[in-house]
Design brief:
Strand content: 15-25%
Shape: flat
Distance between the termini: 23 Å
Largest sheet: 6 strands, mixed
Radius of gyration: 23 Å
Structural class: alpha/beta
Order of helices and strands: EHEHEEHEHHEHEHHHEEHHEHHEE
Amino acid sequence: MGLQCGIVGLPNVGKSTLFNAVSNNAKAQASNYRFCTIEPNVGLVDVPDERLNAISALVNPNRIVPTTIEFVDIAGLVKGASKGEGLGNKFLANIREVDAIIHVIRCFEDDNILREEGNINPVGDKEIIDTELQFKDLESIEKKISKIEKQARVGNDAKAKQEFDILKMCQQHLMEGKSIRTLNLSKEDKVATADLMLLTEKPVLYVANVDEASILTGNKYSDALIAMAKAEHAEVIVLNNSVEAQLSDMSDDDRALFQSEYGLTEPGLNRLIRSAYSLLNLITYFTAGVQEVRAWTIHTGWKAPQAASVIHTDFERGFIKAEVMAYDDFIHFGSEAACKENGKLRIEGKEYIVKDGDLMHFRFNV
């Protein structure tokens, strides 16, 4: 589906290290100087899902294909970026292209890693980024207000009047130092701002990059970040990005041993990837056969014909019906034939809303 999560943050907080750890097919340069990343690096990442392995163990297919998500490593932001400081304009343009934001924040002390913002202050660092994005959104909002104000005030254009009122509400919210995503605009209201691709409307997930000793417990810095994020109903993933980068380069046996030394049951990146997937309001359904067991990405709430379209557009255009098994039923009975014998294979039509974990087979005619 081409959905992207942009990894952002101040310079030298561990963005590129995290990208290197999480990415399957790309390695970003990670160095101890500002603006190491200029052009955004893009990596395609497998979404870890034990259900795929469980299905494959029963089907024994020729190949297994996980679903994926794209991560983008974006240049570090500095104070004043909304006015073009540092690589501000490029940074903000790159953020505008992504669907969700992974905000990496430094939660460790290390005199060997450059920092120009003073003492370690996760909440302050978050506010620097928020402020620059809010300034840029305010600029976009005010430009549109100036274009439609006369039409809204003196004309008989009801649509322009409605858009003007929504834009003024957004303007006030931003001037109060709040991000648009906390305004909880309705789907109808968002039509007024859709063309602006507002930066602060994008969903956000925070990564607290902690020292090695704090991987399991966190520390005072990550605790402060978690308290802040809770107020805006956001999630914080606590990681040590350097450890995760090491884990990503190891064989399975070495990784298991290394994880046990830190008391980890799985790489922290797995939690991050799953949380990013959820942040984008995505779910997974599966197709299973001897040739291939495959995971497919769709949006929550999609109906069967829409879900079929991610395999091929012809599947949606000529949709007739879907044969559906719940994941738990398939694992319990062990095969499609057994599910059918026990009444657990259902025939669903065009109005069926696909559920996370469904195993599906589509019938179509074109």
